[in-house]
């Protein structure tokens, strides 16, 4: 790689270069964080694509660090970029709200109004009569896009503020009832359907 005169200038070595390393690390670690999440959720196409760009950017960043091992600012920038990238990756993933989740609601009150309201909103609700520590309870199961989770939780808390609920990640589903506005990776699966039929 050719050497440029300004590479040895203090403003570049202690200013521009560390900032470039931080930016590269933020991008590649953010991609890495999302790649791990997509691998766990079974995205067989998105995860490798992100992995390609993640490693490519990482090689460029670490190459500059090894060229400037005597520059402590570059070393600090590398670590700072890594830490920031983890945070940014998690924030991006939360904003995308991909995938499906399973919401389990346990209530001692009459569950009919809540289940009817959720069904009116297009969700599939399964109810089971069970026995809790304090007596009979009703368990409601709902599988829904994660981007719609907070709205459903708000509905549950409005109908029954004392209801116990838990949320679990769902990797794969088959059949069932979902709202018209599909969330998560459902749009991606629809794009792949023609290709799968052709195999």
Structure description:
This protein is an alpha+beta fold and 199 residues long. The protein folds into 2 domains: 5-96; 100-195, Alpha-Beta Plaits. The protein is built from 6 helices and 4 strands. It has helices at residues 10-40, 46-67, 72-96, 112-120, 149-159, 186-197; strands spanning 100-107, 125-132, 135-145, 164-170. A 4-stranded antiparallel beta sheet has the order 2-3-1-4, with helices on one face. A hairpin with a 2-residue loop joins β2 (125-132) and β3. α1 (10-40) packs parallel to α3 (72-96) and α4 runs antiparallel to α5. It is elongated, with a radius of gyration of 24 Å. The two termini are 45 Å apart. 26% of the residues are buried.
Task: Write a concise synopsis of the structure shown.
This protein is an alpha+beta fold and 199 residues long.
Which tags fit this structure?
single chain; 199 residues; alpha+beta; Alpha-Beta Plaits; 2 domains; 4-stranded antiparallel sheet; elongated
DSSP, total strands: 4
CATH class call of the largest domain: Alpha Beta
How is the main sheet built? Answer: 4 strands, antiparallel
Provide mean pLDDT, rounded: 79
Q: What structural class do you assign from the helix and strand content?
A: alpha+beta
Strand order of the largest sheet: 2-3-1-4
Distance between the termini: 45 Å
Estimate the helix proportion, in percent.
Answer: 55-70%
Q: Approximately what portion of the residues adopt beta-strand conformation?
A: 15-25%
Overall shape: it is: elongated
Specify the CATH architecture of the largest domain: 2-Layer Sandwich
What is the radius of gyration? 24 Å
- Please mark out the parts with pLDDT under 50 across 5 or more consecutive residues, or reply none: 181-199
